[in-house]
Amino acid sequence: MSSAPAIADPRDNYKRQKSTRSNFELYGWVFMRGSGVVLLVLIFGHLFVNLMVGDGVNAIDFAFVGGKWASPFWQIWDLLMLWLGMMHGTNGVRTIINDYAERPLVRMWLKIALYTAFVATTVLGTLVIFTFEPCPAGAPADLVASFCS
């Protein structure tokens, strides 16, 4: 006879086991839902302004981007889209790595690569948005924004 573990009586009151786990996964799940809704607004606003207003896709050139990023509103809009998109995507890929990478060492290296890509892309994208010069010195007048002298 083997001694199998006893099955609890289904009529007994549930006793929660003491856990030291945090609510990180719950917060990640909530973040994904909230950021997804905000990203929908940001992305469709971005697409509407870039593709539907004015001459549409034919108007997108250096001057168009320079004119948009001369406004703090559009800098913040694009910065939010970058940061939320990167955090949303990184959290999603982190979840996939946790689900499918079986070996702890492989999981660790995949996450290191993921977080490195996240930091590099977010930092470089933020620098581009805030250091972009819409009126570069020596640029041909037909390529720069109309407000450049």
TrEMBL record:
User: Which terms in the Gene Ontology molecular function aspect does this entry carry?
Assistant: metal ion binding
**Has keyword Calcium?**
no
Q: What is this protein called?
A: Succinate dehydrogenase hydrophobic membrane anchor subunit
What SUPFAM superfamilies does its record include? Fumarate reductase respiratory complex transmembrane subunits
Give the location in the cell: Membrane
Question: Pfam families this protein is in?
Answer: Sdh_cyt (PF01127)
* A GO-annotated cellular component: membrane
